[in-house]
Amino acid sequence: MPSLQLLQLTKHGRGILASRRRTLAVVSGALAAGGALAYARSGRRRHPEVANGDSGGDALGTNGERLGHGGTDGRVAGTKRRKSALKSLHLLAAILLKKIGPNGTRYLLGLMLTAVLRTAVGHRLAKVQGYLFKAAFLRRVPTFTRLIVENLILCFLQSAVYQTSKYLTGSLNLRFKKILTDLVHADYFQNMVYYKMSHVDHRISNPEQRIASDIPKFCSELSELVQDDLAALAEGLIYTWRLCSYASPKYMLWILGYILVAGGAIRNFSPAFGKLKSTEQHLEGEYRQLHSRLRTHAESVAFYGGEKREASHIMQRFQALVGHLKHVLHENWWFGMIQDFFLKYFGATVAVVLIIEPFFSGDLRPDSSTLGRADMLSNLRYHTSVIISLFQSLGTLSISSRRLNILSGYADRIRELLDVSRELSGVRDRSLNHNSSPGNYISEANHIEFSGVKVVTPAGNVLVEDLTLRVETGSNLLITGPNGSGKSSLFRVLGGLWPLVSGHIVKPGVGSDLNKEIFYVPQRPYTAVGTLREQLIYPLTADQEIVPLSYDGMVDLLKNVDLEYLLERYPLDKEVNWGNELSLGEQQRLGMARLFYHKPKFAILDECTSAVTIDMEERFCKKVRAMGTSCITISHRPALVAFHNIVLSLDGEGGWDVQHRRDDSSFYTEESDFTSLETDRKSDALTVQRAFMNRAKSNASLRSEHSYSTKVIASSQKLEREQTVQTPLVPQLQCSPRPLPLRAAAMLKILVPKLLDKQGGQLLAVALLIFSRTVISDRIASLNGTTVKFVLEQDKAAFIRLVGISVLQSAANSFVAPSLRTLTARLALGWRICMTNHLLQFYLRRNAFYKVFNMSGKSIDADQRLTLDVDKLTTDLAGLVTGMVKPLVDILWFTWRMKLLSGRRGVGILYAYMLLGLGFLRAVSPDFGNLASEEQELEGTFRFMHSRLRTHAESIAFFGGGSREKAMVEAKFMKLQNHSKVLLRKQWLYGIVDDFVTKQLPHNVTWGLSLLYALEHKGDRALTSTQGELAHALRFLASVVSQSFVAFGDILELHKKFLELSGGINRIFELEEVLHVAQRDTLVPSGAISTASEEIILFHEVDIVTPSQKLLASKLSCNVVQGKSLLLTGPNGTGKSSVFRVLRDLWPAFSGRVTKPSEGMFHVPQSPYTSLGTLRDQVIYPLSREEAEMKILSLHKAGRLFVAFPGNQRFCANVGNMASAPELLDDHLKTVLVNVRLVYLLEREGWDSTLNWEDVLSLGEQQRLGMARLFFHHPKFGILDECTNATSVDVEEHLYRLATNMGITVITSSQRPALIPFHSAELKLIDGEGNWELCEIQH
């Protein structure tokens, strides 16, 4: 190979390149210094108000503290927080070491061993490569061949040891994760902590975020820190010993001194990364919780049309998160410049000075012979590797403080979770039950007795004062009272969910919680994910059964509640999410069958029959009585008085009244604590009590009170079960999945729609920074070669000038590298915003969020994909893009440089190696895309199980289902752990080959090219100048070829990264494709017609078919005109709610014609839904406050602001003409609350209180709040889906009378005969097999 090209480059081009180098270094250094100073100062001034912003202030405010404070108090508080966080980290580390076990110990010992082996192999490699440099310089081919074989073996060992270290790190991470998860679960599922934490204590807002996200991230970063620090420690010790063995100890002292001084200075500048990370995780949790909440309440939100309000809440939290992330990036940028300058780039210059000094004046100074200079070059190569590795290891240990600071943010959140869980699982209960007063405890007996019990909510509201009551075995107690009076709360105290503040409770069993002697059937039905058999024996597992439940036993249990058809519909071993499959009434009947299986002494029935027919309710009560179980019942159905001999009436203000049945079936008052002062709530209580007493005499009198007759005016064609009916096929939300390349192209179009926008500009800036870094790397490579030349020539003055230039280049690098990292992170954040906005615009439109979960025909965890998956995809993609741009720029640049040095043959070898390596890696690569996708899905399932537990916490706590839920959650966790182990093992085996091919083997090719160059080099080897030129050329060639192969290695590694990325792309775009399909109108076949009319709702020959292809109503035909309300009746599961789903366009109509108003319909769903926000926001939902004020103002100006009171005609609200819109709105809303008898909430909480209303309000209060929304919106048609079944009969009649007076035509689904007088027609869905009847009600 001709060396003239190199000589020409070095001689003629040296001046120009040196000039450009100095110019670039000076400018970059000035920019770095000025930028670092300006942003460091601004970073000190700019506190996290930047992160809060207007949109996120409320979210961040929940922490109760600011991220930073000015002045001395702020510094003191920050120091205390940092010490507390580090204390948490120390505690968790102690726990992990104590519980690490034999496997974990082996992993730690393995990491120590691999750290020593890596250092030993690296040390030997440094020696061998020094000898290789000497052999190439002297052109000793046999020696070179022997050394290159040894180098190959060492390189493979290096790859194997490095990948084994990564495998052990991953295994240690999984071990840490299991220890902490098991530790949290141990307390979290004890003593109903999962309920108390979210519904009583409220110190921790998102426990599932800490369990499913914080713990994995903490364990991952901790295990990586352990690996890095062990490796750095081993390198530091070994290289310190080697340095001191052949050089003066002063070098070690200089290095340590520099590291200590630089590290101390950097710590003074360091932001509070732990607090920043803690806040970031809190905001991530709040954002993800909103998506989980929307998934849980998807149908209710869809019925309300609340997409816009939910989108507002979600975007508000997302913007708060984005604002905080931008603040974190800013802090990382300016601090990264300081850290990189002192510990990386300037530190490398210091290391160079320490390396070279012995070669000018020490023992390593070369003699004048060729062999002596060759020895010097070999020693220089080895000495460089030793001192650079030593410096890097000490630098790694020095920056560990920053990593520990970040870890402490996670640790603080995890420790808080552990402390609160431990406190709630035992200490608090013992203190409350034994230390408060001598009589304040729970004891064991064969009856239930309350003596002087005071029921107080977690918020401090007194519901019941000094209750004294005894229920013997064989007696049955009925509890009545207005909604929110404390009926269910009494059970919460009895079951230990709420603390016993005062008094004495006697009950069967041991402990404060419910047990097998007292079985609870909750207000909100709960069905666990599992088989049908597991539903019946819940909360027991198969291992806990004394006598296993047989198939015949299942048949008998289900026949008692008319659910035997479930055995035909679902295979016995099929796991089903029963909450999505069964109607509310079917779930309640399944709860009844569960009670029949357990046969307890006492059964607590908390309005558990509100959605079943009266006939089923009476059959259930008779069966329970025959079983010998005593009932404590909450119900608003007077017919149930016949099955009870004690009635407890609560007045909602602390008062209570107990009545016992005489032998003549009349009741007398034995004890009473009703006060003489009558308030609105006491009036409600007396009304309820009178209603029960008046209607309790006989079922006949109940029925005669509302006498009516019906006349059949239309019906379906009679269908027998044996008949084969042609059921229309439901078109699911399905589409042909696009190939991965098309999905990737669609993704790029979303993320970078055009090159001239913000994202395109950031991409160009990334490319510019990468190019700048490549140029600087090239200059550094040239400097390395020039340094060797000057040392060989003993030109000390020239070397000192090079040191000055190196310092300036260090400053330039310390600006470019952190800026590139920050810009890459900003690019990822910008792409996350783009992708999130793109998905949400479809997800929160046209009820797509409902259809994804219920109409897609497959399990799509949209909440996981919209949050964690989008974040991971965009972060990995930004890294991939940077990883693509950098090697491409490097390839172009260094290929040109390499051609100048080695000619076409060297370039040909380079490209041939790349193609062969890529082909080989593709052949042996596992399917990392599917493996990564499955891991993300399992992570989402594990998180969803925790979110589901939080949603149903009260029902699970009443059932005593903590152990069963723990078993299900841990089964999902172990499935995730096992999959992670499989993935880790595949990554280990593939990683050895990948690392060897992409990183280690290229070094040997570099040495081969160096030997070829040396053999063809021309000139007199005896001349010092020729030797200097050759040494410079070899060093420069080695740097250039090495950089080229590193670039090719990065390109080869992109294949693996893209495979892993493809799993995330497929998950995101599977959701995106389903959302696109959900926006289309093509779901409805051509035979089905939907038209708009302002005055009528009409079904004409419409088939009602479920997404699972079951025909519920065949050719349904009925119409509802204004003023003629319709009542839907029929057994559970016959399709009453399904008719409403078709009317609301949640399900498509497949035949016939559906006519409905384009506006003027308002749905009140079966499941109450309380939105985020104030009491005002609850009533005006789904409108925002601004929209509600505009609506009220327009109605007032038009003179159409009407209110209604029972028994009166509508009249215009009496408000002043000069009243402002907020005053008009609040006055009108107060009238609405008065009408639904909830005005006491306004008096108690005020308009602007932001509470967790689902916890604050009882089910009946939530249902009345739903009716308040109906009255506020005042539509022409109200669609009421069993939305008042938890209210008392008199309140229900009152609400329907109000609706009639306001001119609202209702379509009602209900099981209560008392509502018949408010309707003109009845649609009976007979059997859920397609049969129906439409009857005219004749009053």
Helix content: 55-70%
| Low-confidence runs of at least 5 consecutive residues | 1-76, 427-439, 695-706, 721-725, 1205-1216
Instruction: Please state the structural category.
Output: alpha/beta
**Which of globular, elongated, flat, extended, rod-shaped describes the shape?**
elongated
Strand line-up in the sheet with most strands: 6-9-10-4-11-12-13
Reported for the largest beta sheet, the result is:
7 strands, mixed
Give an account of the 3D structure.
- With 1339 residues, this protein is an alpha/beta fold.
- A seven-stranded mixed beta sheet has the order 6-9-10-4-11-12-13, sandwiched between helices. A seven-stranded mixed beta sheet has the order 14-26-25-18-24-23-20, with helices on both faces.
- Helix 10 runs antiparallel to helix 12.
- The longest helix has 63 residues.
- The N terminus is likely disordered.
Would you spell out the secondary-structure blueprint of this structure?
Elements: H1 4-11, H2 14-45, H3 49-61, H4 71-98, H5 101-138, H6 141-188, H7 193-201, H8 207-246, H9 250-269, H10 273-296, H11 298-304, H12 307-361, H13 370-398, H14 400-435, E1 442-444, E2 448-456, E3 462-471, E4 477-480, H15 487-494, E5 502-507, E6 518-521, E7 529-530, H16 532-537, H17 551-560, H18 565-569, E8 576-577, H19 578-581, H20 584-598, E9 602-606, H21 614-626, E10 630-634, E11 646-650, E12 656-661, E13 667-672, H22 680-695, H23 699-705, E14 709-715, H24 740-751, H25 758-793, H26 796-843, H27 848-854, H28 862-924, H29 928-951, H30 953-959, H31 962-1016, H32 1024-1078, E15 1088-1092, E16 1096-1105, E17 1111-1121, E18 1126-1129, H33 1136-1143, E19 1152-1156, E20 1161-1164, H34 1175-1180, H35 1185-1197, E21 1202-1203, E22 1211-1212, H36 1221-1235, H37 1239-1245, H38 1253-1256, H39 1259-1273, E23 1277-1281, H40 1289-1301, E24 1305-1309, E25 1321-1325, E26 1332-1338
Parallel strand pairs: 1-5, 4-10, 4-11, 6-9, 9-10, 15-19, 18-24, 18-25, 20-23, 23-24
Antiparallel strand pairs: 2-3, 2-5, 7-8, 11-12, 12-13, 14-26, 16-17, 16-19, 21-22, 25-26
